[in-house]
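Hey, resending since the last one bounced:
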Amino acid sequence: MSRDPSLDNAGLNVSATAQSGGHVTAPVLSNNIITGDVHITHNAPGVSGHRTQTQTSDISSVIDKYKELICSEYQYVREYNSLPGEQVLLSERFTQPLIIQKHKDQTERDEDIRSSSRSSDQSVHLNRLFDPNNPDSISPRAVILQGNSGNGKSFTVQKIMMDWASGDLYKQRFNIVFHLKCKEINCMSGEKSLEEILSYSCSLTSDQISQVLQETPEKMLFIVDGFDELRLTQDDHPKSPHTDLNKRAPPEVTLCALLRGRILPESFLLVTTRSTATDTLSKLLKAPQRFTEIMGFSSEGVEKYFQRFFRNEEFFRKAYEYVTANETLITACSIPVICWIICTVMRERSNDGSDLTSGLETTTSIYADFVSTLLEHHCQGLSQSVPALLRSLGQLAEKGMLEQQVLLDEEMVNRTVADPAGSPFLSKFLFKRRVHQEMMFSFMHLSFQEFFTALYYVSLDEMEFEEKFTNVCLKAQFAAVVKFLFGLINKDVRHTLKRKHGVCVHPNAQNILKFWLSKRRDSLETLHHLFELHEERFVKEVLNVKSEFSVKSTPLRRIDCWALLYCGQCCQSMKKLSLHECDITSEKLAMILPVLHKFEKLELDAESYSDMAAVIHAVLRGRTLSSQRVTIVGPVNKHEYLRRYVRFREQGLRSNNTSVYLSISEDLSSVHIDTGETNMREVTVTFPQSSINHFDWTNIFQEIEAWKDNEEDGGIDDEDGDMPIFSLQSVPGLKMMELSGLTLTERCVTQMICFSENCPSLRELRIECEDVPEDGLGLLQKSHTRPDCELTIEGSIYYTERWRAGLKISLNAGGFSMEELPLYSCLTESDED
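The structure tokens again:
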């Protein structure tokens, strides 16, 4: 078949038209070469303009330039406290938040509000937001990303923009991504088309935007950030639909047309909002929709955030460990803004040359900073004054606390708070009730409900405060509220509340709390209340009256150690601290070591022999008291525990833990070691106070333990075995050693004399023994000691099975002398029967 030559240079003209809403099936052109410009005219509503093949490369270069500008602008973030010109890299702050793709039911939501941690197992990654749920379903055109204030919605949007522009996210899915901020749209005046709105919020010119919008809309993503902040008017639902891309209207109306899909219906949408506006958004948004919720940080996310923030392993570890010790703070750290506040405070301390966590602000001060941050940056157009808002939130929080409810019904919320949807501190949820929906509210977490309850109480007058405190706060569920009360009467927190928010704390609230605290029995809670108040003068006044603290069979938490450390640092001395069966790990012990020397009487259990040694060193080095008594109960080898326990119970003996009793006086100190065994039961060494700072007590404790572990093999009673005392020869300035519970065999006598000869500072060696066999007595009679050392022995010798005589033996440089005391019966009444 021959071709018509006249067609070679003729323009090929194919035209297909349809009315609005109609369809066109375009003819298929194959095996043809078409030269010249190809013009495609769109007459469909909402789309206008021409696209030519020669324009494609121009649009591509425009988008490439747009991506470069996005990368330049979005790689940095300005923090809430940034000064002009200050900025940090997004990569140093952004941590993937926990995003879930489900509506939680009422039970799940209740548990979540009360929980102390979140797992990241079910988190949706950003690159999966627009994926279909399964192979048979279609991708959502609109994604709702719900989240509380400060939970990281805007940060996440910035990360999406940055990763798309860098080619790391949505590379094949979207050719162009626009970022619209509802805060900025609120500031626009007059009527605006979509093109004009976009030119206001991005770096492209109007002409460039016009060109880009003519590209394939199914490759476009519009991110609308902060829908809850959009000021909607009555014109948002016009009778005649807004479908023309170039039509001008109030900015919010044009935006709503985009959200509904009236404009660019094939495009994709990602809209962030607080929960208080989710139902409005869902009714407005085009379908198909996907609901997701940004929950803040998971437990793993909190750790990653701290690591990125500090970028110094030592600082990161110290800061993170401090926060994880405080259950309230680590729970609140699921909110990214709380993480930022804590890290910022810690960094400022390190920049000032202070210890990273020394004197760190209290939990209450962190919560107060969070409230201030949200009021300053997340509260636009409040319908009431800040004091009125905070008071109404406090009243609402108290009602929930009294009813032990964290999910609050809509009617109660509307009666108490003037504009609940406008408050950044409340979340709103819809739950299914049979064939209906029920709306409920909550605070971000139970701890914020407790904080606002306390904030409400301290703003009351004296009589009301005292009544609330006496009749309400002493209920068990108000324990955290009481702790916040102490934090809120701190001088700096009071000043901040008054200066920034007009909230006045009654001046007599502190006296009421002080009086109540002075009447309570001593407990760790007392220390926690004082730690939260964080005023040294107040702490001293209370602890002058209450300075004996005893904890038993309750695991000591790290936050307990911080409270104990702080209170100890505020005081010159305290009477007694007793910590038994408290799971005091080496880490926890290290936290409180700096103040242990301030207790006149100290009793505690140690996890290891090195811990026992650490306590001895701490109290000796830091000694400020004229006298001190310390009791340390040592560990039991877990492998040996059951065997030893059974044996000692069968024999009616006491527990065989190695224990240490440390006695400190003005000039001399003594360490008394109770081995827990019947043979060589006790060892006491006395030395000058000034000479003992660097002796390693661990060796002697390990020597005793190894000696005890040989018991089954006869090691303790074996005449050829060495007693575990030779490490004590190196005690600097050792003046006197006392031993009790010995059987003074020949081998034992040899070791005693050897010890005295190898310890030149020793002046006196005292031995209390159960029996002096003939071989031991014979060796003593032939021996002598150094000129400046005396060996004194008190014991007994058997004459018959029934009778024994007491002995008092003295051995010195001059030789042996013995005083024999009257006979006495060694049989009990039961033996005689």
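The chain has a mean pLDDT of 81.

Sorry for the duplicate.
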